[in-house]
Amino acid sequence: MRKIYVIGIGAGDPDHLTLQAAKAIGRTDVFFLLDKGEAKESMIELRRRMVKAYGKPGRRIAEGRDPDRDRTPADYEGTIADWRRRRSEVTEALISEHLLDDEVGAFLVWGDPSLYDSTIAILEEILARGATRFEYEVVPGISSVSALAAKHRVGVNRVGQPFQVTTGRRLAEQWPAGVDDVIVMLDAHQSFGTVEGDVDIYWGAYLGTPDELLISGPLAEVADEIRRVRTEARERHGWIMDTYLLRRRT
Fold this sequence. Notes:
Layout: E1 3-8, H1 19-26, E2 30-35, H2 41-54, E3 60-65, H3 76-98, E4 104-109, H4 119-129, E5 135-139, H5 144-152, E6 164-167, H6 168-173, E7 181-185, E8 199-205, E9 213-218, H7 219-237, E10 242-248
Parallel strand pairs: 1-4, 1-5, 2-3, 2-4, 6-7
Antiparallel strand pairs: 7-10, 8-9, 8-10
Helix pairs in contact: 3-4
């Protein structure tokens, strides 16, 4: 039976790699990489560096083209379902073509595989179709949430209080009920601009990389600075991954 590791590799710092992840990389025969285009080459390069540092002699890399998707769809759930189906087809073709019987394959996942990542769901979709068989194991990683809190030297929750992790799209609809501390991911439209009241923000982009950016302070005072810095960084690199904590003053 073929085996696949889904390995969380952290938010960007090579030192985020856990011992468990490094050992899994060392047992892998084939690494699967989905190319997102030239703008994301630096993300692919980090994975290649980890493979070179911890991979065994003779390991192979199989690359496929990650399907494009509409980032502002009218039917969000339908668009995501269609994208995952197309992505699963690309992934299944890579596994079928490049992973031999009794070999070990791996996907190196940015951050942690359990948090806003589709790899686990895509592997389950492939297994559900029944044509390609394998077993898989998930190796947790340091998420951008953990990295953000560490860089700003804050906890994501306050004593005895809950917090919520959500997306920019959801935040734009409304502040989550019942919480005063909200972690926001996948926010392409700077939805913190919809937030009113006395709120502090702890923002970070390219966490753990040499290009890391950090801004914090009262939201009303630093929102424009975050927009400017974010726009300039995205134009410079061609992509951006950012996360932020919003904290209501109580």
